[in-house]
UniProtKB/TrEMBL annotation:
Pfam families: EF-hand_5, EF-hand_7. This is Reticulocalbin-2. Keywords: Calcium, Metal-binding, Repeat, Signal. The lineage of its organism: Eukaryota, Metazoa, Chordata, Craniata, Vertebrata. Belongs to the CREC family. Residues 56-91, 92-127, 181-216, 227-256 form the EF-hand domain.
């Protein structure tokens, strides 16, 4: 039931954060070899990671630790780890969008037109009538999604020129990262979920098409979603989500994910229980650190943006 503003953004978060089948044993223990292959991108990237000489690996890791330590006191706090992980999320999302921009810009004119977007996505230009619904349910669902993409594409275009420049394309792909798209993200969510048009999303609207069977207990996923509605999103406890509360639902919460990972690392690696990590503590258990989001599962050791002296 949870949704994000763009499939690409949500897919990135799932790649970085979600547990996958086979990722652990029957007791739920993490398999670091699985994490490396699944999250570094494949066996080729894993081989590159393994090939890095231990001395060079440690040198780059120490450089990353130094950059995470914002106050240069020799320790990494939960806040510093969380900020670094959030920065890493955003960096890779932006890098992905920049790479996509080159692929979508078929004529290399520095702009991505709506036709170019369609050709890259569907191998042809698609044009639906906004006012004519299709009889086939699947085709109609696709028509609705395509029209939403077109609307978001048009909103991302801030100048009078046709197509999107790089900055506008990033706004299209990651509206949650761009301030001028915030209102659009909220409007889009209300259009989809606010069935009675009162400008809010009730618990019933939040749960979508689910209808409770009085003869049976609610399934587990419904109980989880209700708990999220009540305890995570409905901050003023009025039984409905206002536009700002709605935003916290529809936009991926990188901050919460980063904080959770930071706490996990401190819990696992803090040897003297001072609730912060020294360089020695990290090097003592560097395999855990290198298979965490703090280093994007070791990926940062191969990206000069992170380990170079200037960041």
């Amino acid at each position: 039931m949870r949704l994000g503003p763009r499939p690409a953004a949500l897919g990135l978060l799932l790649l970085l954060c979600a547990p996958a089948a086979g990722a652990g044993d029957a007791q739920g223990e993490h398999r670091t070899d699985y994490d490396r292959e699944a999250l570094l991108g494949g066996q080729e990237e894993v081989d590159e990671y393994v090939k890095l000489a231990p001395e060079e690996q440690q040198k780059r890791l120490k450089s990353i630790i130094k950059k995470i330590d914002l106050d240069s006191d020799g320790f990494l706090t939960e806040s510093e780890l969380s900020s670094w992980i959030q920065m890493s999320f955003k960096h890779y999302a932006m890098q992905e969008a920049k790479q996509q921009f080159v692929e979508y810009d078929k004529n290399s004119d520095g702009r991505v037109s709506w036709d170019e977007y369609n050709i890259q996505m569907y191998d042809r230009v698609i044009d639906f009538d906004e006012n004519t619904a299709l009889d086939d349910a699947e085709e109609e669902s696709f028509r609705q999604l395509h029209l939403k993409d077109k609307k978001r594409f048009e909103k991302a275009n801030q100048d009078s020129d046709p197509g999107l420049n790089l900055e506008e394309f990033i706004a299209f792909e990651h509206p949650e990262e761009v301030d001028y798209m915030t209102e659009f993200v909220i409007e889009e969510a209300l259009e989809e979920h606010d069935k009675n048009g009162d400008g809010f999303v009730s618990l019933e609207e939040f749960l979508g098409d689910y209808r409770r069977d009085p003869a049976n207990e609610d399934p587990e996923w419904i109980l989880v979603e209700k708990d999220r509605f009540l305890n995570d999103y409905d901050r003023d406890a009025d039984g409905r989500l206002d536009p700002q509360e709605l935003l916290s639902w529809v936009v991926p919460n990188n901050q919460g994910i980063a904080q959770e990972e930071a706490l996990h690392l401190i819990d696992e690696m803090d040897l003297n229980n001072d609730r912060k990590l020294s360089e020695a503590e990290i090097l003592e258990n560097q395999d855990l650190f290198l298979t965490s989001e703090a280093t994007d599962y070791g990926r940062q050791l191969h990206d000069e943006y992170f380990y170079h002296d200037e960041l």
